[in-house]
Amino acid sequence: MAFFLLMALATIPLFLAISLLFYSKSVNTKSFSVFLLLISFWQMGIAVLYSQDVFSLTVIDWLFRLFRAGPVFLMPIMYYLGIVMVKQNSELAAYKKIFKLRGFFLLLGFSLSVYVINFTSAGINGYEFVQDGMYSPEHLMPLYGALNVTFTINTLLVITNTILFVVAASRIKSRSVRIFHLQISIGAVFIFFNGILSAFSPLPLYFSSFNSIIIAILLFLSYVRMQSVMLLKANSNLSQQRTLLEKIMDINPNYLAVIDKNNHIIRLNDSICRLLSISKEQMTQQNLSTLLSIRELNTAEDKMLTRSGEIRYIKWGYETLELDNRESYTLFIGVDYTEQKQNEQLLLDSEKSKVVGELAASIAHEIRNPLTTVRGLIQLAKEKSEDPKLENIILDEIDRIVEVLKELLLLARPEAKSEHEGQSEIINVIEELENIHFLYQSVSIRENKFISIENLLTDNGLIDIQKSHFKQIMINFIKNSLEATSPESKIKMKVDSDGKHIRIRIIDNGKGIMKSRLSRIGEPYYTTKEKGTGIGMAVCFKLIKENSGEVKVNSKTGWGTTITVTFPKASVLIEEPAESLFRRDKTV
Predict the structure, then answer these.
(1) Which of 66, 101, 111, 220 lies most in the core, judged by the most C-beta atoms within 10 Å?
(2) What is the pLDDT of residues 36-60, one digit of tens each?
(3) What transmembrane ranges does the database entry give (predicted)?
(4) Which pTM value belongs to this model?
(5) What backbone phi and psi angles, to 5 degrees, belong to 204?
(6) CA-based angle 270:275:281, to the nearest 5?
């Protein structure tokens, strides 16, 4: 009866060892499982000594010698646990000189020799029958031979290894790992001393079995606790790494989407969400076809129009990702090369500007030469005429042509300015707009259109800009509004101020401009007119910028267009009355 009870108890460490191997296949787990397995063998050997009613003495002898591998090989396995501990904890690097594989194989060889001696009479030469006692049933006690001293040395080496193990384990930084390794060393020492006390004291032999099983269970629970703490820490680290990788993915300027093997979207970065005006929650777990069905996204074309009306150039592609040859994902990538495309366009525009500039300079000079001759002849005719009125008109018109040619030369060589061009000239916005209104009044009446001026200024409307430049800007904008509107349409020139700036708005109720074209207004050589060149608006934008102004174009198809031009107010002397400035403006 005692044999079966003790054998059942001895199988507990065996069961725990096998359970650990199902839990994990790491080196640490395997070595600890062997440790528990050897404890199980040791206790099975003790249980066999109580089996005289079950087995013959020959079988008992053979089984006892076989299970004696438990206490014999606990010595090298404790040393190997030290090797694993030092290898897994970088702070124990100094102990690598003590715990190394060469030492393990030497100790393993010694234990093998002890185990072999155990099968000879020099190790065990018989058994002594022990009668029933007060606390212990009858059992057998082994009689040891002359070379059993090797087993004693093996036991002393266990204690030595355990002391070294304790010293090294006490240096481990992780509290849970340190406690577990200290418990292993204390448990090993306790088991050995418990076995010695049971063999050479009044305590019953099976007493060590109960204590060893309890220690084995406690070590198992400690190991599970340590692994749980390490697992929680690993999960926390993985969570932090995942958060970091997600942040890196989100700040990536490329457009990224991760697709699983079922073509479902599992992750989008912020760049693609901003591009398509979608949210991550909206598209996660949706099929890729849902993403591709968004009207702006066409992977077959590089050019796309966003919902905000911005044109982007994107190269789309796919990359396959495999994890441990088990899971497969697809990375949907969009590389934005809009800036590169814009730089290429700027180079192209620069080359066009150079060619057109050279052509403009050539034409301007060719026209100015005969105009000079014509003007000189008219002046001679004017001196001989009694009524020079007609000649004055012709001279004024020729001067206007010369001014236009000057602007053409400005286009040819924008950096070159005439001598008087850099001089300060203060104009009155309302007066100049009234002159332009008067100029186009007949044109608008003929086309059945209405042009009006709305003056919301509470003080003078003076700005610092050349009169010819201001007229060129406003005439170009008014002309475009007239061309964009249908009969009975209205064009309003609205002027107001915020105290520091004069704001001029040209508002029409024409057909408007599409979003795709609105962003390109002001680009050289870009026009929607059949016979347009795209030069007029480009020059106007340039002149506004050169005079510290700002221009903004708002438009909606079918509703009309508003062009807002803002100039800083002119800095004038306070004591100089506005009327004198107006007079000076008229005489320039």
Answers:
(1) 111
(2) 888 888 888 888 888 888 889 999 9
(3) 6-24, 31-50, 62-83, 104-124, 144-167, 179-200, 206-224
(4) 0.48
(5) -65, 150
(6) 50
- Does residue 494 register a pLDDT over 60? yes
- Structure token pair of residue 385: 């005429």
Polymer length in residues for the chain? 588
Q: For residue 484, give the nearest of 432, 449, 522 by alpha carbon.
A: 449
Element (H, E) at 73: helix 69-88
- Burial group, residue 1, by CB count within 10 angstroms (0-12, 13-18, 19+): exposed
Taking each helix axis from N to C end, the angle separating 207-251 and 175-199, rounded to the nearest 10 degrees, works out to: 170
pLDDT for the residue 449? 87
Q: What proportions of the chain, in percent to the nearest 5, are helix, strand and coil?
A: 60, 15, 25
Q: Are 548 and 567 in contact (CB under 8 A)?
A: yes
Give the tens place of pLDDT for each residue, 393-427. Answer: 676 667 767 766 666 665 555 544 444 455 568 88
Bridge partners of 303? 313
Q: Which of 487, 507, 581, 504 is nearest to 547 (CA)?
A: 504
| Eight-state DSSP code of residue 569 | B
> How is residue 25 annotated by DSSP?
-
What are the tens digits of pLDDT across the range 170-227? 888 888 788 877 877 777 777 666 666 555 555 555 556 666 677 777 777 777 777 7
